[in-house]
Structure to design on (412 residues):
């Protein structure tokens, strides 16, 4: 299964949710943000190289860590040579060889956001509770609907004690999983790790488990 | 298949407009060939040629009784006719599948703009070449010309500026004086 983790606005925690969800689902994480990659790259070929036809998708997947990752390069030159129309074929090739794929989808409404949604069977939408983020999430939900990516859950990220769950559910029309603001999530993310590796008993892990269960249910 | 056309030449480039009319009761896939002695410059959206176009012409569906207006450019003198209908095969009515290129056309290309934006270049060909031939180098800003010269478009712009500097235009001189006065005034205010 190919799952897009999307959200209209930047900085709402898409990459964090994508990394933790990939860890829970034992899926390959693909960083599809062709111009502003956010996940650790390490050395070796990356998604830019794969989309430019310089490397096979299989060769670019970093294995051996807690989560298998197909990272994206961070150079302008790399972004220029990466052919965006190849992305669907690359995602399908990774799914064929590695199983489940979680795609960290860029913010915005350009083709780099649309292509993962058009390829994915399902999508998880990430937003924070503030108005601009929810407004952008509504636009991304429309795009996902247009491109036939079923919306599994909305992640209401970095919430405080009284999350606006009902308001977000009403605005986006899908079940909401709140994920609390958490220092351990942020610390783990800064090291490119899922929170489970640093704080396996934290409530954040439970929340990502809930999300993964919902995604898993949708898969079967 | 009925074909009507018109051509218009500008600076060595011919713009060709044509309309296809399918008067039959069957949807048809029509192949149109460019008769001009040059490559087809197809219509583009988001940098990608519209569906159905290649270097030689156009292939696409036209519904029963429908008309379709199309156009392209070609760096060659006009001919009469500029295009000809090669085949008109009957097809089943079907909605065409949405391709990744369709999405890029609709939503916009996410890539940073190319370094060399000379409109005479064929964008797709340039992209394909750079994808196979160019090494992505960290921090590369402009393509290094082999002889250290600047690209032709920028050289032409420099020449224009140089010519204007030499021309001693009184309007320019007045403007420069006005800017100098303004700068002096601002400098005086800062020192107060």
């Amino acid at each position: 299964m190919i799952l897009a983790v999307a959200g209209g606005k930047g900085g709402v925690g898409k990459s964090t949710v994508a990394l933790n969800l990939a860890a829970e689902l034992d899926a390959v994480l693909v960083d599809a943000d062709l111009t502003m990659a956010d996940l650790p790259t390490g050395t070796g070929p990356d998604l830019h190289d794969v989309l430019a036809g310089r490397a096979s998708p299989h060769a670019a997947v970093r294995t051996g860590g807690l989560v298998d990752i197909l990272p994206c390069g961070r150079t302008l030159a790399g972004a220029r040579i990466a052919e965006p129309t190849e992305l669907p074929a690359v995602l399908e090739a990774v799914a064929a060889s590695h199983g489940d794929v979680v795609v960290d989808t860029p913010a915005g409404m350009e083709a780099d956001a649309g292509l993962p949604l058009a390829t994915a069977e399902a999508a998880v939408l990430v937003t924070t509770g503030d108005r601009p983020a929810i407004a952008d999430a509504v636009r991304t939900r429309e795009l996902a609907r247009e491109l036939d990516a079923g919306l599994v859950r909305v992640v209401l990220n970095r919430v405080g004690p009284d999350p606006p769950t009902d308001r977000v559910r009403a605005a986006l029309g899908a079940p909401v999983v709140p994920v609390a603001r958490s220092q351990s999530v942020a610390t783990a993310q800064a090291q490119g790790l899922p929170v489970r590796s640093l704080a396996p008993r934290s409530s954040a892990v439970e929340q990502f488990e809930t999300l993964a269960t919902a995604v898993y249910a949708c898969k079967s | 298949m009925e074909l009507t056309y018109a051509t218009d030449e500008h600076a060595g480039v011919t713009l060709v407009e044509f309309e296809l009319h399918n008067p039959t009761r069957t949807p048809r896939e029509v192949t149109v060939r460019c008769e001009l002695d040059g490559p087809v410059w197809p219509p583009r959206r988001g940098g990608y040629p519209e569906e159905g176009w290649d270097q030689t012409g156009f292939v696409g569906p036209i519904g029963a009784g429908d008309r379709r207006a199309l156009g392209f450019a070609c760096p060659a003198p006009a001919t009469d006719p500029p295009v000809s209908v090669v085949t008109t095969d009957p097809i089943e009515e079907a909605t065409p599948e949405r391709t990744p290129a369709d999405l890029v056309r609709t939503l916009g290309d996410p890539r940073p703009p190319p370094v060399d934006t000379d409109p005479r270049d064929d964008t797709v060909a340039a992209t394909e070449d750079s994808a196979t031939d160019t090494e992505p180098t960290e921090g590369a800003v402009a393509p290094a010309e082999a002889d250290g010269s600047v690209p032709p478009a920028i050289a032409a712009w420099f020449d224009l500026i140089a010519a204007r500097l030499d021309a001693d235009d009184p309007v320019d001189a007045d403007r420069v004086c006005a800017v100098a006065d303004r700068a002096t005034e601002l400098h005086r205010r800062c020192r107060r």
In short: Residues 152-191 of chain B form one domain. Chain B has two domains: 2-100, 152-191.
